[in-house]
Description:
Layout (H helix, E strand, L loop, with lengths): L2 H11 L17 H16 L3 E4 L5 E5 L7 E7 L12 H16 L8 E6 L12 H7 L4 H6 L8 H7 L11 H6 E9 L4 H4 L4 E7 L2 E9 L3 E2 L11 H19 L2 E10 L5 E2 L2 E9 L3 H22 L2 E10 L2 E2 L2 H10 L5 E4 L4 H5 L5 E6 L15 H19 L1
Parallel strand pairs: 3-4, 3-5, 5-15, 6-14
Antiparallel strand pairs: 1-2, 2-4, 6-13, 6-15, 7-11, 7-12, 8-10, 9-11
The structure holds glyoxylic acid (GLV) and manganese (II) ion (2 copies).
One manganese (II) ion binds next to loops.
Amino acid sequence: MDAAGFRELWGDFEPIGRSPEGGYLRYSWTETDLECRNWFRAQAEKRNLEVETDRNGNLYAWWGDRHAGDAVLTGSHFDSVPHGGAYDGPLGIVSAFLAVDELRASGAKRRHPIGIVAFSEEEGGRFGVPCVGTRLMTGALDADRARDLTDSDGVTLAEAMDSLNADPSVLGPDPERLRQIGVFVELHIEQGRALDAEDAPVGVATAIWPHGRWRFTFTGEANHAGTTRLPDRSDPMLTAAFMILAARKEARLAGGVATVGRIESDPGAANVIAGKVHAWLDARAPDEAVLNAILEGIESKVSERAGRDGTQVGSRAESETPVVEFDAALRDRIASLLGGVPVLPTGAGHDAGVVSAHVPTAMLFVRNRTGISHAPSETADDEDCAAGVDALAAVLRELAC
Length: 401
Ligand code: GLV
Ligand code: MN
Ligand code: MN
């Protein structure tokens, strides 16, 4: 595939969900999500692929009958983080359509069904929990808990699905569907600069770092910012500020990463000492021992600090994802098929990680020269994306033909 061929289909999808303030707002179960889904349907129909949505809102286009079993599934997600980049997710879906086109144009004889998938709510950008579609499908997320997840306006996932005429009552594990999938391959933009350093347009994933999101709640006493003497205050913002710095320090000392990218204060007024502060910690590490050391370090230092601030602190996990080691035989087979491309781990979460606990799974990464992701300037060269399509087509040919 050449760069222009990639650009033609990419350019058709790219404007959907673009925000005038920068980046993309492609949240799940919104009008923008519906536009993405309609685009997917139109592409599938153009190619005579059969479209269906599963009980968890994941959308498929099938070349061949999925009931035949041993299906080769490829795809990614449409949804974005707030003001996210264009490529994180959609690149894997657009590339899947183009790879299937390549395979068909070459007259390849298909032995297994090939499915293109758009998994639902991967980022957790709207409802807080990542990989909702795959976690529900695999039983890793309880359906009642999923239905009750709320967005920042207090709309539940169930209400959001209802608003787009999707039925939330059928959410839940889908073992029969999982059994029909023989292998899953997700192509994704790289979210770092390892491929750039190796001067390679495409690479293969080895592992995903264990990671999770924890919501910390700091409680103090709301009071007047002008008249309350400093010694009389119980200011939870101080404990939250300490936690943000402690997270950075514990991660640095242990060899992982930790981030507080979201904070909310109540009542949230400049002239009021906050009564309550919520802060969301995202922590990731090369292994579980390091991740636990980071969390324990933060929790013990923060509770000591809360004692000094006269505040209370509580935390609860919103999502936890264990380490993922992708199927080694599949990874090596793909890396050598592609001529010995680099193999690399990632600190980013993916539906591929959730699916890999049930189905042999692999990931292809496409070079990102700046490494920037989850931000408006995320980008990849059209030439590299075209190389990604070729690589995915070669993998589909190897696995399905
Ligand atoms: C998803 O992209 C994540 O790693 O948070
Ligand atoms: Mn992402
Ligand atoms: Mn992604």
